[in-house]
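User: structure tokens for this one?
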Amino acid sequence: MPTPANDAPLEVACPQCSKPVVWSPESAYRPFCSKRCQLLDLGAWAEESHRISGESAMDEADLDALLAQADRDAPLS
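Assistant:
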């Protein structure tokens, strides 16, 4: 038999403002509490304020060299 604690909806903190958000299909902006917080977070990613740590897989010079090599190796038709 489920306990009352198991019946309680899961609450998470909004990543933007830390306001509690009920994790359910009715929470349209989850994990955010509102459209505003969702858009603020999206803007931070777009401005590169948020980023995934680690080195880039390839820098621009490596990409240019790879494309030049592919052009040289491409068969002529």
